[in-house]
Amino acid sequence: AMVTSGMADKRRHARKKQPKRNTITKRWVFNNLGLIFLVLLAIDFGVIYSLQNYYYNAAQQYLTTKATSISGVLTRYAQDADANFSSELRSTLENFSDKDKMELMAINAKGTVVLTSSGFSPPESISMPDYQQAMEKGTGYWTGRINQEKVMAVSINISAVNTDYDAIRVIASLSDIDAVIRGYMITVSAACLGVLLLLVMTGLYFVKSIVRPIAEINKTTLKFAKGDFSDRIETNSTDEIGDLCTAINHMADELSATETMKNEFISSVSHELRTPLTAIKGWAETLNAGGDMETMHKGIRVITNETERLSRMVEELLDFSRMQSGHFTMQMDKMDVLAELGEAVLIYTERARREHIEILYNEPEFLPIVYGDKNRIRQVFINIIDNAIKYSNPGGKVQITATQKDEGKTVCIVVEDQGVGIKASDLPKIKTKFYKANH
């Protein structure tokens, strides 16, 4: 029970450690789209705030102009000795031309509204901050609510004109202005919402155009990881995603070729090792069974030759490993290429005679000294002559020619046989490692 509990705790702990999957779409929604939403929201509020300020300032300027104009008229009445200021003030309020748009009030020295253009006096408890401000600074402004209705008021100090009255006050409803602002608010908000929806649709399409190929790439590369190189990614775009798909497809081609080369290498090495091992095993069993001295000498000679052949194979495998790892070094020096070619021909002369193949070596008197690795160039000669003999039929000829061209700047060595040859379709692949046209 303790072991089971401990394993369960480990599984829960492992699950807790797994990071949450953060998709590209989620990142785009929370990062880009979230930022765009905040920017559009700020633009929306900024435009609405600017419109409200514009209309409110225009209304305030209009009310202030009206109040200042009436104050000027009352000033002229106060300067006229024959005029009754109270009567003129009452007449001005009663005949106020804009009473359908705003209300004109007269405030006495006690701070009470005594006259209005509408004929109705407001409650005495109503707040008039604009009046208090006007008494201090000459002009007062206030925006607030009266009976749940938003209004704007402007007061002008006239206490210097007449001692019985302190100020005149112009008050107007902001309902119409707020209705216009709400209309603009709806229009601007709808425009911002439309832009946001357009960005969402185009953004999702763009993100999907990236996510879909990436998902396809992920699915295909998982197959590559399992050794299945049969699938390829479809590339329908010429952008960076298309370049990535092309690169992955090229990588798959290279990996497939490498896998084929590996299999062919294993097959080739297995085949090459099987022949000498079979010979060694067969002669070892023969020697173990006993026999005359001639059979014993022959068996020992075969075992020795095949062991040397295995040693050469192992050395070649080591050379191949060094080539692949980049640690293969060449012992470069001046050399007599004609001597190395003659040595390779001499090695295969006896074998060619036994297989009834004639080697025709057109040996020149002189070839220029060349710069290279004599052991490696001899190995090249041996490999090519060996192939020429191996794929020739009995009675065939192998002709080897060495010449110099371009006034001694180039040495040309040709090995020509009369064997089965190589198909034209296989010729481009003859330099591919371990490639065999006929397995």
Explain the layout of strands and helices.
Layout: H1 2-17, H2 24-79, H3 85-94, E1 102-108, E2 113-116, H4 129-137, E3 139-146, E4 149-157, E5 165-173, H5 175-225, H6 240-289, H7 293-325, E6 333-335, H8 337-354, E7 358-362, E8 370-372, H9 374-390, E9 397-405, E10 410-417
Parallel strand pairs: 7-9
Antiparallel strand pairs: 1-2, 1-5, 3-4, 4-5, 6-8, 9-10
Helix pairs in contact: 2-3, 2-5, 5-6, 6-7, 8-9
Structure in a nutshell:
This protein has 439 residues and is of the alpha+beta class.
Describe the protein.
With about 450 residues, the protein is α+β, with helices and mostly antiparallel strands. About 60% of the residues lie in helices and about 15% in strands. It has helices spanning about 1-15, 25-80, 85-95, 130-135, 175-225, 240-290, 295-325, 335-355, 375-390; strands spanning about 100-110, 115, 140-145, 150-155, 165-175, 335, 360, 370, 395-405, 410-415. The strands form three sheets. It has a five-stranded antiparallel β-sheet. Strands 7-9-10 form a three-stranded mixed β-sheet. Strands 6-8 form a two-stranded antiparallel sheet. The longest helix is centred in the first third of the chain and has 56 residues, at about 25-80. The radius of gyration is 53 Å and the shape is rod-shaped. The relative contact order is 0.05.
